[in-house]
Design a protein that fits this description.
Strand order of the largest sheet: 5-4-3-6-7
Number of strands: 27
Radius of gyration: 31 Å
Distance between the termini: 77 Å
Helix content: 25-40%
Strand content: 15-25%
Length: 566
């Protein structure tokens, strides 16, 4: 292949050929003359079998290709980054388009250089004259699918303008119908006209059955749906399936009472983009007028059940008042007692009444052995617990397990010196709702009255250890004041021989590795943010300079930190 000038127009024939070859290949070995690409748009697909993102994107590209190739004006050419011919052949066997032969490494490398390929998958589109249409093919197809054709910035702008106009004139039918489909389906395949749903409050349930959090939520939604239907509420749910497996969708539909878009319907991806889906589960509420009432009521349904209906702003204002009153009235017993379950477990397995803990400072620790961040944090919490407990007897931690079996719970709890709910205790579900646990580890601090002080105690323990106790705003203000005193007299900026190209700025830090002594540091660093360069104050200033004007008298040193004595 001849050297290619860095221009936006390319002659496809010399671009893809070599002195020994004027053809491309199919996965059955057939040779196809490069000249057959004349008059077509050409996509150059840089990919490899060893690349997980490529493996995920290729099936999507196959679907798009099969849909568009019938137009007769598009071809795709695979440019492999595989390291051996066997891998290339196995991967190429899944592709219905053409490829540069694996043996022609010179052309493949030249194409990489020509189109500045720095990562894969990478997809470049050229028009019929060889002009570069876009080098963002992967992103455009990922977001817009075949609707993005011919994958130009102009087409992307056109789609965005259309979507903005659609938002202004949104109706239930504009959301759910396509030019070739005006219905949704039941589990048995029966068609229900979208027009029959107009005038109802409709929940659009984005569902991925292979995602555990999503599949677990379905049971909660079924219960609320059935209760609303029993009350003759003017409400319906339409599932937006995101699964790639049709059998999984059929199985899911067999277990739910609501309607659904068909499998792999184009509207599914469009609605993901339209509602800017960022989390699962998501239940978008469309009001009787076809306008969006709420972008996601999944948490509200889980927390309030049917009481969240009809999901209007007035209803949410009412629920907010109820929630505020609940928090004001919260006690330790209201949080931890449920019927006969009025105890926690001690290390010896003895049942300790929740009433015995009333009046104490309590940390509720949501964690699990299978969770690496949990296992990393637990030793720090053990150290902090022991230090606080040695000074404040009216303090306790309660472990709430998310372990997958009793043996894992037993093994993990054996490393902890505090209390616990029994494994698989039903109170875990209500506690998770109360404190909105969306991930672990999570550490909640309750005051002596049982009211919540903070749900972010983990960060406070990581940063301040036992010094953070009792985790109140007042205590944190005291700590911040001490830190401010610590830095009095230090210069805001310094120059240092180890990093003489930029000034180092005095910066608060949760944690860093000093680039001089290779030891960890916290609280204050002299930092060059752009270069990710950090020094301890003593390494930046020198001990004498750091201590200048700060005699040891009147200071208390604890570990790596010195505070002014009260």
């Amino acid at each position: 292949m001849a050297d290619t000038l860095e221009v936006d127009v390319h002659d496809v024939q010399p671009l893809l050929s070599s002195s020994e070859r004027d053809y491309l290949v199919r996965n059955n070995g057939d040779q196809v003359a490069i000249s057959t690409l004349k008059g077509k748009k050409v996509g150059l697909y840089f990919s490899a079998s060893w690349c997980p993102p490529c493996q995920r994107f290729t099936p999507n590209l196959v679907d798009i290709y099969n849909e568009l190739v019938v137009k007769g004006d598009l071809e795709i050419v695979f440019v492999s980054a595989d390291e051996d011919e066997e891998s290339f052949t196995g991967y190429f066997s899944k592709m219905p388009w053409l490829a540069v032969p694996f043996s022609d490494s010179e052309t493949r490398e030249a194409l990489d250089k020509c189109f500045k390929v720095s990562g894969i998958p990478h997809l470049v589109f050229l028009d019929e004259s060889g002009k570069l249409l876009s080098d963002r093919g992967v992103e455009i197809i990922g977001e817009y699918g075949s609707d993005g054709y011919p994958f130009t910035p102009e087409r992307v702008k056109e789609i965005k303008d259309q979507e903005e106009e659609a938002r202004k004139n949104q109706t239930l039918r504009s959301l759910l119908e396509t030019p070739s489909r005006d219905f949704v389906i039941k589990a048995n395949g029966d068609k229900v006209p979208v027009a029959e749903l107009e005038g109802k409050t409709v929940g659009l349930y984005f569902m991925l059955s292979t995602f555990k959090r999503s599949s677990d939520y379905t049971g909660t939604l079924v219960k609320v749906y059935d209760e609303l239907k029993a009350k003759d509420c003017n409400f319906e749910i339409v599932m937006i399936p995101l699964d790639d497996d049709e059998e999984l969708l059929k199985k899911e539909l067999d277990n739910v009472p609501w309607l659904s878009l068909p499998f792999k319907d184009k509207k599914c991806d469009k609605l993901v983009r339209y509602f800017e889906l960022s989390t699962l589960p998501t239940v978008v509420i469309i009001g009787p007028d076809g306008k969006t009432l709420h972008p996601n009521v999944a948490d509200a349904i889980e927390e309030h059940g049917v009481n969240a209906y009809p999901f209007t702003p007035d209803k949410f204002a009412e629920l907010e008042k109820i929630e505020k009153a609940r928090l004001e009235a919260q006690t330790l017993e209201s949080v931890l007692v449920s019927g006969d379950l009025d105890f926690v477990l001690g290390k010896d397995g003895v049942k300790i009444p929740v009433s015995d803990l009333v009046g104490k400072h309590i940390l509720i620790y949501f964690s699990a052995h299978w969770c690496p961040p949990c296992r990393a944090f637990t030793p720090k919490l053990v150290e902090t617990y022991k230090e606080i407990k040695s000074k404040h007897d009216a303090f306790e931690v309660i472990f709430i397990s998310s372990d997958r079996d009793q043996a894992s719970y037993d093994e993990y709890y054996a490393t902890m010196p505090w209390l616990s709910l029994p494994y698989n205790d039903k109170r875990k579900q209500s506690l998770s709702r109360t404190f909105k646990v969306n991930g672990i580890p999570l550490l909640v601090a309750l005051g002596p009255t049982g009211k919540t002080i903070t749900t972010e105690a983990r960060g406070l323990v990581m940063l301040h250890g036992a010094e953070a106790f009792p985790f109140t705003d007042e205590r944190l203000a005291e700590i911040e004041a001490k830190f401010a005193d610590m830095a009095k007299g230090w210069p805001d900026k310094v120059k240092h021989d180890l990093h003489d190209e930029h000034e180092l700025v005095l910066t608060r830090s949760r944690g860093f590795m000093c680039d001089k002594c290779d030891k960890e540091g916290t609280i204050w660093a002299y930092r060059c943010k752009g270069c990710d360069f950090d020094l301890h104050p003593e390494c930046a200033l020198g001990k004498d300079e750091k201590d200048k004007g700060k005699p040891n008298e009147g200071w208390v040193c604890e570990g790596d930190v010195c505070y002014k004595a009260s």
